Each structure stands twice: as structure tokens, then as C-alpha cells.
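Dear H.,

Thanks for agreeing to be a second pair of eyes. The structure we're designing against is below in C-alpha cell form, covering all 100 positions.
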């Protein structure tokens, strides 16, 4: 199972997502289980596409960029993949509150 994590900082990029996904599905066999859409505190959109397909790290990264995810995030993710980081596909960080 693979997860495609998309970060849309521009509303028009988010709005073009369904069309891009349909075109890609006509080219590449994507077996989508479900899709989650979140709105960040800053008003940006985060999309998680859960797939039955198994894609390697570079394939996931390519799909994220083809689907229009933030290009700066993509550059950082490429650096993480090339460095061999296991948890390279970071979309947002959870902030844990520590009890003192």
C-alpha cells in the first residue's frame, strides 16, 4: 500500500487536482482505496491518496509532483530520498504537548 501526500499552497492547484487525478488514472493503473482532504491552519489543502498499489519512493515522489504538490516540499523530499531517510514523505508535523 502506498500513500500519496499532496500539499497545495495555491487554491487553483487544489481545484485542478480532480482533473489531474482522472487523467493520471487513465494512464497509470491507480487502485485508490480512499482519499482524505484536510485544510491546514493557514488555509492550504492537504490531500492523502491511499492506494493498494505498491510504488517505490521515487515513484511516489513523481506522482506527488505530477499531481501538482508544492514544488519546494518536493525538492526537500527528493533530498530526503537521496539521503536514504526512511520517513522522507513529511506532509505536516504533529506537535506534542509535554506535561511539565
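And this is the sequence the design step returned. I haven't edited it by hand at all.
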Amino acid at each position: 500500500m502506498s500513500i500519496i501526500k499532496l500539499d497545495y499552497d495555491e487554491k487553483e492547484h487544489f481545484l485542478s487536482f480532480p482533473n489531474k487525478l482522472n487523467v493520471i488514472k487513465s494512464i497509470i493503473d491507480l487502485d485508490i482505496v480512499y482519499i482524505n482532504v484536510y485544510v491546514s491552519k493557514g488555509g492550504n489543502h492537504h490531500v492523502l491518496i491511499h492506494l493498494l498499489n505498491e510504488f517505490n519512493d521515487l515513484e511516489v515522489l513523481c506522482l506527488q509532483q505530477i499531481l501538482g504538490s508544492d514544488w519546494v516540499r518536493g525538492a526537500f523530499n527528493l533530498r530526503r530520498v537521496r539521503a536514504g531517510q526512511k520517513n522522507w514523505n513529511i506532509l505536516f508535523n504533529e506537535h506534542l504537548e509535554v506535561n511539565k
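Two observations from my side: DSSP finds four helices and three strands in the chain. The radius of gyration is 14 Å.

Warmly,
E.
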